[in-house]
Specification:
One of its GO terms (molecular function) is hydrolase activity. This protein has 524 residues and is α/β, with parallel strands linked by helices. Helices cover 33% and strands 13% of the residues. The protein is built from 15 helices and 15 strands. A hairpin with a 5-residue loop joins strand 6 and strand 7. Bound molecules: 2-deoxy-6-O-sulfo-2-(sulfoamino)-alpha-D-glucopyranose (SGN) and calcium ion.
Length: 524
């Protein structure tokens, strides 16, 4: 009897010690959006951000650390998410493009590792990796790209259920509900992942007119002529001018147009509008109807020059995009408030990021994919109370391969040797750390938006981009030419830096064990 009491006591002590340990392990709240450019986050500072502040994301930056030199490994949705989950470049996790067989769930992932380490894990919102999520106690995800209005969510039992409302609000409600009902004996890892502000850039009804009366500044490169760089820049299909769809992106429906024939394209119809209920349609029509009529009249009367037309599209695009961002920012505010109200803020790491950057008219574009700064950059803000110095901005170049090892170390777990990224924990702690001085980039998609496969290296000052199919190289001095308008690859004065960057590019390809490059066109 006496002996068994001792055993029980010892077991209890052990369990208590473990419970205390796990109480100390930080919760992780991963707030993620889709296609949110840093130029649309006021904490990062830009002309645009001045007219469209993001106070809640900014609060996170003021209370935490904002990474100015944060980049993705492959600027496209599924691949970025696969990299975050695995800590590896696309060629190592197998998810190289959005199309294909889907994410290989037999491999190591951050969610499985944190789950095994005793975390209560969940993912809610956009997933986009095709195979069902694994390593999550709870998941509820959008099918594919998902919808903005009255969206469907795939349930864990495999069924799909449609919910009334606006997608960003629903993802937030569901995230808060999960936090409320979670297993409170464990630390949590919640990935709250928005669809917004992804194409079709649909704002919530409450923000339809939020930017109607502000002057939206225009990027210097809106009318880029694509000279002095790879010839593939001019053959892409992501220009606002030629590739924004009238109904789908620009919200000018066919049934509103009468006999007005707009310049192509006009491919998609109006999927979001068709999902709305009568009340939602009425609010949408009340907002867009009169504006569209005024525009169509001017257009029909021949009052708009080609540049006027591009500017009109740009403004419509930006108002809608920024309206969608405003709701994401409100979501961040609600999530932070939940942590405050529930005494969770102190022991929770909060991260704000997005799968890649996005063109907000720079180079005349929307969409992402290119290794140019606007889409290569990824927002990254981390608040870890007691660890990150408030309002700090580290210099180091970081990449989404670093997220998984960072969160593992934060959770007190070992980092598997196969992981290619590095833990950011020393940087978060403000320690002096011997860090990488170059990043590797690889883009593999073929098809939509006609951006060619390309690969490259970036240092703190220079960038080298390799287009193997057209057998071209571009190089930029980011200090002298931050908008990347003139390649200096052929410039004899840049020979030394070109040689060292080329060497570094091939070194990195070897270091990350990259697969062979695609062949030049016309060769086999
Ligand atoms: C969709 C969009 C594209 C976008 C890709 C990838 N077309 O296919 O414009 O580049 O997603 O975006 S759409 O007609 O379906 O809107 S990603 O963020 O998922 O990678
Ligand atoms: Ca994306």
């Amino acid at each position: 009897m006496f002996r068994s009491s001792i055993v029980i006591l010892a077991l209890l002590c052990c369990a208590t010690a473990r419970a205390e340990d796990s109480a100390k392990r930080p919760n992780i709240l991963f707030l993620f959006s889709d296609d949110h450019a840093i130029n649309a986050i006021s904490a990062y500072g830009s002309n645009l951000a001045d007219v469209a502040p993001t106070p809640n994301i900014d609060r996170l930056a003021q209370e935490g650390m904002l990474f100015r030199n944060s980049f993705c490994a492959n600027s496209i949705c599924g691949p970025s998410r696969a990299t975050i989950l695995t800590g590896k470049h696309s060629h190592k996790n197998g998810f190289m493009r959005n199309t294909g067989k889907g994410f290989d769930q037999s491999q190591w992932t951050l969610s499985k590792a944190l789950h095994a380490a005793g975390y209560n894990t969940a993912i809610i919102g956009k997933w986009h990796l095709m195979t069902d999520p694994q390593g999550f106690d709870h998941w509820e995800v959008l099918p594919g790209q998902g919808n903005y209005y009255n969206p469907a969510f795939i349930q864990q039992d495999g069924t799909t259920k449609r919910f009334d409302g606006y997608v960003t609000d629903l993802i937030t409600d569901k995230s808060i509900d999960w936090l409320d009902g979670r297993d409170k004996s464990k630390p949590f890892f919640l990935m709250c992942q928005h669809k917004a502000p992804h194409r079709t850039f649909a704002p919530p009804l409450r923000h339809l007119d939020a930017f109607d009366s502000v002057e939206i500044p225009e990027p210097d490169t809106l009318f880029d002529d694509y000279a002095n760089r790879s010839k593939t820049l001019a053959t892409n299909e992501m220009e606002i001018d030629r590739y924004m769809d009238w109904a789908y992106d620009l919200k000018v429906r066919k049934d509103e147009r009468g006999d007005v024939v707009l310049p192509a394209p006009d491919r998609y119809g109006t999927p979001e509008y068709n999902r709305m209920n009568a009340e939602q349609k009425a609010a949408w029509d009340a907002h867009f109807g009169p504006q569209n009529q005024a525009f169509l009249k001017e257009f029909q009367e021949g009052k708009l020059t080609h540049k006027d037309l591009v500017r009109w599209k740009y403004r419509r695009y930006m108002r809608d995009y920024l309206g969608a961002v405003k709701a994401v920012d409100e979501s961040v505010g609600r999530m932070l408030k939940y942590l405050d109200d529930n005494d969770l803020a102190e022991n929770t790491i909060v991260i704000y990021s997005s799968d890649q950057g996005f063109y907000l008219g720079e180079h005349g574009w929307y969409d992402k994919r290119w290794m140019f700064e606007e889409s290569f950059q990824m927002p990254l803000i981390v608040r870890w109370p007691g660890v990150t110095k408030p309002n700090s901005e580290p210099e180091q170049m970081v990449q989404n391969i670093d997220y998984a090892p960072t969160l593992l170390e934060a959770a007190g777990e070992d980092i598997p040797a196969e992981i290619q990224g590095r833990s950011l924990v020393p940087i978060l702690k403000g320690e002096d750390v011997d860090w990488r001085d170059s990043l590797y980039y690889a883009y593999y998609e073929l098809g939509e938006h006609a951006v060619p496969q390309h690969f490259g290296v970036r240092t703190d000052r220079y960038k080298l981009i390799h287009f193997p199919v057209s057998n071209e190289w571009n190089m930029f001095d980011l200090e002298k030419d931050p908008q990347e308008m003139v390649s200096i690859y052929e410039d004899p004065a840049a020979k030394e830096i070109r040689d060292s960057l080329t060497k570094e590019y091939f070194r990195l390809r070897e270091f990350y064990d990259a697969p062979p490059l695609p062949k030049a066109a016309g060769t086999n």
